[in-house]
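Need tokens for this chain, all 583 residues.
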Amino acid sequence: MKMNYLKRWFFLTFLMLMFGIQISWAQDIKEVAKAPILTTNGGISFSQIGTYIPGDTIRHADPYTYYLAGNINFNMFSVVNVPLSFAYTNNQINSDAALPFNRFSIAPSYKWVKVYAGYTSMTFSPYTLAGYEILGGGVELTPDNGFKVSAVYGRLRKEVRPDSNVLEPTYRRMGGGIKVGYSSKYGDVAFNIFKAKDEINPAFYNNTDSFVTPKDNVTGSLSLDLKMIDNLRFNFEYALSAINEDISKNDSINKGFSDQIVEQHGDLSTHHAMKAGVSQTSSIGSIGATYERVDANYNTFGSYYFINDFENITANFSTSIKKRLNFDMNAGYQRDNLSGQKFNGGKRFIFSANVSSSITKRLNAGASFSNVQSYIHIKDIYNEVTATNQFQNLDTMSFSQLNMTSSGTLNYLLQNTKESRQNINASFTYQEASEKQNNQTRYTGNKIYNSVLSYQISKIPQKLNISTSVNYNHNQLPKSYMGVISYNLSVQKAFFEKLKVSFVGTYSKSFNDSLTLANILNLRISGMYTFQKRHNFNLSLAEVHNKGLRRTSTQYSVNLTYSYMFDFYIDRKDKNFKFKGNF
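Here are the structure tokens for all 583 residues:
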């Protein structure tokens, strides 16, 4: 059944592609005859990392890893585009990971037809499919008549068995959807539907150590964006999502047509979301209002993280005064516990504002405040100051739900001449957050303070850049706190426009209420050499010395990266082929 579905999917995609090619070819045959036969450009990079930790008997790091990545684009007759990209590593960050690092993607296009294969992502709506990465195929049709059709199908998650080394097993999840839209001078209208379903495997729910159940989800939305008189716009979107949290016992049940849409037997629930807004622009700025409501437990398998159970009524205003002051404000009312499932509900005034100003030619300032809940990826300070290369923390995903954020920045230009440029920057950020990852909440009520003071100087004739900074991060937990203070120095020097040498040094100290948890010294020296503008060699040596409460360790690493960029084309002149390229 699944194989027949896939065959029909790709057969229809092939027909649409061939149909589009025939129409476009008939229309643009003259332009095609004059265009180059083939134009190609792209690049490839190969990184090798060697790591040595004296006295490391547990093997905290692999002694040798490599990362290979590349991209290439073929353009035939100036109408057919075939972009290709890939990434591969021998570093088994986690062989059971549901979202692997190694990937391959190709996206050929011809005029208004574009086909996707490999790892790809699409966005239909924030409430349905919103950038989730899928291993499979897709198509986009954007003809000149105002219609736009997008479709995708593939694997959202690979299967992770209950006896694997990861903390939580996952079912193999397949899914796909389609979006149809139409645009005109009066507005836009679009409809989309997305479905994702886990493949039932009895090995999961027969395993007493596994509490994961197979799920089924179908979600769709209808959106309108109307362009009215006097720069007046009205937009509206309504979404519905049905999720069955447990379809493990549905294999032996006689299924009807409705079960093909979403499994009816099991733990099925349906939830709604909607958003409407109106706005108008004029010479003094833009003003508008928005209403948004998302039911409790509303979710979609097409998004990594989703906020639900809230109702917002907001008004917004933005303006610019003499190109020196930019102001943007949103204010309104929010409440949660829409279905009365929680013991305590909340009602509050929500407000967000951003202001930036060029006070003088040398001084720029900005400030922002928001108490609207949102998700943000927060870098772990400890992992950041101990990293020896850019690939070290690829498997780190830390998302936090922010309840309040305020920040301020100040930039003052001390000197700006042909010989030298100097400036000083200061910034401060305050956040209240509860970390949430994989639907697990912890550290509720965290208060995070971060302040940075930096100074940069550039000696332009000498091609010398020097910067230094002090960074203090304070994480206030419910019963304690942890602080990290870092001192940073960076020196960069260019020689002969082909050789660049840099040095980066960081000293960090982490502590809590009464103890110094670690003293970390991170030193890195690197050099980059460019050969014939196409070949780049980068060699870096790094040392991380970590003196902790129970253990002192030193890690050495060497990173050698080679990258290459190329382009060439095959032209024709007087029926003779001409090959030109840069290698």
